[in-house]
Specification:
Helices cover 75% and strands 0% of the residues. By secondary structure, the protein is mostly helical.
């Protein structure tokens, strides 16, 4: 088979795996954004829960919130493995490749054939390594989707409980109590009092 034809195939495969790396990174970023949005909602609910609500409702809400938080933490851990610490293989620098080609030209009888063989080996190695790395990252992202599907149940239950039972302590529908502890120290300032003090 013609080596140039094989080289073209390997080159396309290498380029495909590099493009796939970018796509996987974009997918990971989208999942990070989804998890960050969900975590923000969980933090808001945890900080603003009305502790004066009925105990069974608070316990149910706390359990759902805790389960969601644990699943989100696992998801972030998995996602960080898909996002960082992956090694990709690239072709040697062009100046090193050119030096190798010149060395072949000076020593070999069939320099062109040997250089094509060298390129075939490099493209094959790089494309193969990158494919394995991409498959590992994609497998992590796929398992992460399953984990996120599981997290929807406790997340929706916690959010629904928070909204339906109006557990938001900062809600405008809640009455605000003001307790005056010592009335002796209270003074009422009027415009006339302020004018007298300023004069």
């Amino acid at each position: 088979m013609d080596k140039q034809y094989i080289l073209d195939i390997y080159r396309e495969q290498f380029a495909f795996e590099v493009d796939r790396k970018k796509d996987i990174t974009t997918q990971a970023q989208i999942r990070f954004a989804l998890i960050a949005a969900g975590a923000t909602v969980l933090i808001y609910m945890a900080r603003n829960v009305d502790l004066n609500a009925q105990l069974p409702i608070l316990v149910f809400f706390a359990v759902c919130l805790l389960i969601s938080s644990i699943i989100f933490t696992l998801a972030v851990y998995k996602l960080s493995n898909a996002f960082w610490g992956n090694e990709y293989t690239y072709l040697p620098p062009m100046d090193a490749t050119e030096k190798y080609r010149i060395a072949l030209e000076n020593t070999a009888n069939d320099e062109n054939n040997d250089f094509e063989t060298y390129l075939l080996e490099e493209y094959s190695q790089c494309a193969g390594d990158n494919r394995r790395t991409n498959q590992k990252r994609q497998k992590i992202l796929n398992s992460l989707v399953k984990l996120l599907h599981i997290s929807i149940i406790p997340f929706v239950l916690a959010s629904g409980t928070f909204l339906v039972f109006d557990l938001d302590a900062s809600s405008s529908r809640k009455t605000t109590e003001v307790k005056i502890i010592n009335t002796e120290q209270l003074t009422c300032l009027t415009k006339n009092n302020l004018k007298g003090k300023n004069d």
